[in-house]
Amino acid sequence: MKLPAIPSPMRLDHITPSLYEELRACPAKATWSAGGERGGLPAHPVELLGVAFHRVMAAAQNGELGDQVEVRKLAARSLFDQIAESLHHDAHPLVRLKFPTGQRLPYYNLLRERAALLASLVESLPSATGGAGGSPPTMSERRFCSTDGSIVGRPDLLDVYRAEVVDYKTGQAMEDPSVVLDREARQLRLYAYLASEAGIEITRGTIVRGDGARASIEISKEAADQEADRARRAMNDYNAGIDSSSFAELARPSPDACQNCPCIPLCEAFWDAADPQWFKESTVQHIEGTVIELEEVTLQGVPVATLRIEVLRGTVEREAGVLEQIPVNWFTADGDHAPTPGDVVRLVNGHVTHPHEPMIVRADRTMTSIWRIVGKHGSLQNIAAAHDPH
Length: 390
Description:
5-stranded mixed β-barrel, globular, alpha+beta, 21% strand, CATH 2.40.50.140
């Protein structure tokens, strides 16, 4: 596949909680989110299913799934199916190739049942009577905007009577489920700020995880206002620096910032900085190399290719490597052709099954993508020289 175009940094006229987190971690990632080619990189299947999950919860909060527990469960499953299929239809070609229907996406049944369960447990549906200041007692996925227009967001749920903002997460907590993570707390405080800008007092923020576990924090108006000020500063600092910065110059590559980042395939700063020590304890690695030889065979009716490469950069040692049994149609999902000897390729999220030379790497059906780097075709000596720091 060919990489999508690298976006030029553009001025942000507002910031959302998710964009705020990206600016904190890596402004280049925020640049991609704000101006990158939509659908140009394959989304993780859980991201697609997460959208379906949240839309089901919004429907439940808005009273669209019925008023009985079992009825809501059935309606939630049906709605999840419809939304997931629609999202699958619009997904990156590689995602559709790997998973022919929405229901074949990994973790489908798990997230579908989590959505159905949480939707069935919605305590009360919105009523016609207003809450404080004439506001509805609950508001789901309503867009809020600060009075100056600089901060916007859509809280999953605002409960006016309880003065609480609720955010749903599809997964479970990695450690203590009763603890609100720092990034979650920042998000909740921004939502509380946006509510206060609309005249709604929020004093509590709650995270509801996919397994139903809840974690809460108290939110003072002062804390919410301070978080909003920090978000504005992050946006203003970004806007002040983009005129003299490229995408690569905005990047802040590090093991933490680059963990699970969708921009890895196209981020030159990542490939320049990536080090074998970054993910040393993980079998999942990212590799750039020159194709020396490509061999195609058919296994169980599926054409696959094994590439022998000379590793140039990445989170592995620079040595000879073998990329084993990659389905040939993964190379051509977007209409590009398969790599040939001399091409430079990037394999993202491959599993190292043999770490010693020659290193052996296998593809992961859920995560792996492989990209042909246009413009880097040439002799092995020339390519190696282009990456040799000496």
